[in-house]
Design brief:
With 663 residues, this protein is α+β, with helices and mostly antiparallel strands. 29% of the residues lie in helices and 23% in strands.
Length: 663
């Protein structure tokens, strides 16, 4: 028995879809519109896309800060030719981008200089057609969305040749230096910055403000501090020292260049860590002039924290000053000129928003993983992040935590057209900012306007090379309408910042349970790109953070919400939920007709009581892409043949006069 749909077509489907299909080109068009924000009034524009690029690169000042060029607003003029004209004439369908810039003079000697506000042409920027493609030199091109590793923190496990389990944590930012923590065979934890030489993780802890052994041991609740007096020390005989006993003094010397007398703190290690206290040690401690000593806490399971003690043993530094100097030497291969320079390097690497950015996604992922509630505006690393990561690694070693699944879709996100353009505009405007600075320095005190400082070719050459040569900017497949729509909804793991065919192993290419309803499990190429290029499912959409979501009907108390209300879930939100199949039989009120229903729980397929289920699929074809859902009786098809079928439909010769099917 057929149902007649809203479009007047006959549908013989057993299970009717609850919601209509979304706009299939939304992933391209919405991303591009959010980037340009042309529909939004200038004063209401949010700090994203093109507006964010300008905000990051302006204001620009000369070396003496006499002149400052600041950004006010941007606008675009209508395109000169229509899309069809551009295709006929072999031109690029583009819009002129103009920025309103303000030049201010802070120089007191130059009081007659008037503040100038001027609209400056920055170049012609290719503009998306209403079909979601770009016309470049008369040819239609598509920017394919990229699937890449999400910024955040990832915990992994590997095995040494002798069978020892090694654990590592890697913090991947949006921009800035990578930092990695890893354990080795000797149960010592090291830190690596930008994959350079390693140093004990306690050196990093000292450098971020936990200068002495007591501070570090206190982080893990391992230290017991005792005052130094003869009676107290007598009671400690037989216990182990948790921190070194140091003799500290100041040494004066004359600086040959300036003739000033400079004081330097000197340390001498009198007793090493882990030494058992005897009468001899008591004498040494009393002679050292130390006011306190640090002992191992008795009530802590010391074996759980062996790695911290082992790491402290490998750590040659004894203070924050020494630690920052060690890190400076590792990164620069030379001694630090002074203490402040050494401190600044750590500050700039991870705690400065100019050089380091986790992005909103990175902060969200780190908060989620480590259980923090640090505000989303804090897009740099914090001390709490680093300490929690070290604690999580200790939890992994003691089997109290689990490693991450790198192929889980909560650890991969989509870079749509808008985000890729954001990166390119960032490169172009940074180059432009450099030339503006140079020109400002040369044109000292002359009369000049903002337009004299800007070379419009700088930005447009970067953007044009992106559209012309980037791996993800592809000539649009236009054999038939399906080929065109599929190309715009494609997801690629290749491209800049992604994987390469040669390096991609089997796991990355394989189907994962989180692909259900998000990435098509059938449609993928058959050659060397198998599994690296996939297609978005029919009902899937990409959220503001770049994670793929899929809709589900809500089940409350064993009853399905029979309205068109659905909830979109990311892969992470879906974990731990029982999700019933779309073809489960329900009555008109939403009650299940059987007392046990087939469900999906992460990677398993249990039979559950309807009261234990939380969600239900919206349609049987939710699991596949546009091309695969065109195959009639797909469920009776062999998977390999369905893969070929969905790829070959895109090669079919189109009709001269396309006509909507009746069935």
């Amino acid at each position: 028995m057929s149902n007649i749909t809203a479009t007047g077509r006959h549908s013989f489907a057993k299970t009717q879809s609850v919601i209509n299909y979304p706009d299939f080109l939304d992933i391209q068009i919405k991303s591009f519109q959010d980037f340009f924000q042309l529909e939004t009034a200038a004063e209401n524009r949010t700090d994203e896309g093109l507006f964010k690029v300008f905000a990051e690169n302006f204001p620009i000042a000369d070396s003496r800060e006499n002149f400052v060029l600041s950004f006010v607003d941007y606008s675009v003029d209508p395109p000169k030719y229509s899309v069809d004209e551009c295709i006929d004439r072999g031109l690029t369908y583009s819009v002129p981008l103009k920025a309103k810039l303000r030049l201010i003079c802070n120089d007191t000697d130059n009081e007659d200089f008037q503040t100038i506000e001027q609209e400056v042409f920055l170049g012609n920027i290719p503009y998306m057609t209403e079909r979601g493609s770009f016309v470049i030199n008369g040819a239609e091109r598509v920017i394919v969305s990229q699937l890449h590793r999400s910024p955040g923190v990832f915990f992994a496990q590997s095995k040494h040749t002798n069978g020892t389990k090694l654990y590592s944590a890697r913090i991947i930012p949006f921009k800035g230096s990578w930092i990695e923590f890893a354990t080795d065979v000797n149960n010592v934890m090291y830190a690596y910055i930008d994959r350079k030489k390693k140093f004990p993780v306690t050196v990093l802890l000292r450098a971020i403000g936990y200068g002495n052994d007591k501070d570090i041991l206190d982080l893990f609740g391992l230290a017991e501090e005792l005052n130094v007096d003869k009676k107290t020390l007598k009671s400690t005989v037989g216990r182990r020292l948790a921190a070194r006993v140091l003799k500290t003094w100041q040494e004066d010397f004359v600086d040959e260049d300036t003739g000033e007398v400079v004081s330097i703190d000197r340390n001498e290690i009198l007793i090493e860590r882990d030494t058992v206290i005897t009468e001899n040690e008591i004498e040494t401690i009393l002679d050292s002039g130390s006011s306190t000593i640090i002992l191992h806490k008795d009530d802590v399971n010391v074996s759980d924290y062996n790695i911290i003690y082992n790491t402290l043993q490998k750590d040659t530094s004894n203070s924050e000053k020494e630690a920052v100097e060690v890190i400076y030497k590792q990164l620069r291969n030379t001694d630090a000129p002074d203490e402040q320079t050494a401190r600044d390097i750590i500050q700039n690497l991870f705690f400065s928003d100019k050089r380091y950015d986790l992005g909103e996604v990175g902060r969200y992922r780190i908060n989620k993983k480590l259980g923090h509630d640090i505000p989303m505006e804090v897009k740099v690393l914090t001390k709490e992040d680093i300490i929690s990561i070290v604690k999580y690694l200790i939890g992994l070693i003691n089997s109290r935590a689990v490693v991450d699944d790198i192929d889980h879709l909560s650890n991969r996100r989509v870079r749509t057209v808008g985000e890729q353009l954001y990166a390119q505009f960032g490169v172009g405007l940074a180059r432009m900012a450099r030339t503006i600075k140079e020109r400002m320095n040369v044109r000292d005190n002359e009369d000049f306007k903002p337009v004299d400082l800007i070379n419009a070719r700088t930005l447009s050459s970067v953007i044009n090379s992106f559209f012309g040569t980037n791996q993800l900017s592809q000539f649009m497949d236009q054999t038939n309408p399906l080929a065109e729509i599929t190309h715009k909804r494609r997801m690629s793991a290749l491209g800049p910042g992604g994987l390469s065919r040669e390096r991609a192993g089997f796991e990355v290419r394989d189907v994962h349970y989180t692909h259900y309803g998000r990435l098509c499990t059938i449609e993928t190429p058959e050659g060397p790109n198998i599994g690296l290029i996939s297609s978005l499912c029919v009902h899937a959409k990409v959220n503001s953070m770049g994670f793929i979501e899929t809709p589900y009907r809500i089940i409350d108390g064993g009853k399905v919400d029979i309205t068109t209300h659905v909830e979109y879930l990311t892969a992470e939100e879906e974990d731990g939920k029982n999700i019933v199949q779309a073809n489960a039989m329900i009555d008109k009120t939403g009650k299940f007709l059987s007392d046990r229903v087939k469900a999906r729980f992460e990677g398993d397929f249990p039979l559950v009581n309807p009261a234990d289920a939380q969600f239900m699929d919206v349609a049987p074809n939710q699991i596949v892409s546009v091309a695969a859902s065109m195959i009639p009786f797909l469920e009776h098809d062999d998977a390999n043949r369905a893969l070929m079928g969905s790829n070959m439909q895109r090669q079919a010769v189109p009709l001269l006069r396309p006509e909507a099917p009746i069935v």
